[in-house]
Design goal:
By secondary structure, the protein is α+β, with helices and mostly antiparallel strands. It has helices at 3-6, 15-19, 79-87, 93-96, 100-116, and strands spanning 25-30, 35-44, 49-55, 59-64, 69-76. Strands 4-3-2-1-5 form a five-stranded antiparallel beta sheet, with helices on one face. It starts with a helix and ends in a 12-residue tail after the last helix. The mean pLDDT is 86.
Length: 128
């Protein structure tokens, strides 16, 4: 075996190659000829595993293991609408319904708790 064969792809593959798939609709074909179509939620760069989501009547998550993948084809480049759908998957529904006043109140409560426990905190950004 040559030295190049001993190096894991995580050390040779550019992270941008994985990032190009995020939030896009793709078709992933596996060794057994199965085609898996969905929106890319994430890609594990170590195992080269894709996590795909589909939204029909119910939300379905599918793990396609990297060792079984033979090809990946991008079907849709529309990342903005897909990103919003995917980002809401694991957020609590209550968080999405908070008013700006409630968010400010929670932020101030957290800031005071941090100060009370002697943790330095500084609010920054347009909302701070």
């Amino acid at each position: 075996m040559s030295e190049e064969e001993d190096v894991h792809p995580i050390f040779t593959k550019d992270p941008d190659e994985w990032m190009q798939y995020l939030y896009k609709k793709v078709s992933v074909v596996t060794e057994d000829g199965e085609e898996h179509v969905g929106l890319v939620y994430t890609v594990d760069p170590v195992s080269e595993t894709f996590i795909l989501a589909t939204f029909a009547d119910t939300t379905k998550m599918e793990i396609v293991l990297g060792h079984a993948i033979t090809s990946v084809t991008v079907l849709s480049e529309d990342t903005e609408s897909h990103k919003q759908q995917l980002d809401m998957l694991f957020r609590p529904k209550a968080l999405a319904t908070l008013s700006p006043e409630e968010i400010k109140r929670k932020q101030e409560t957290l800031r005071l708790w941090l100060l009370k426990n002697r943790l330095p905190v500084q609010v920054s950004g347009s909302d701070g």
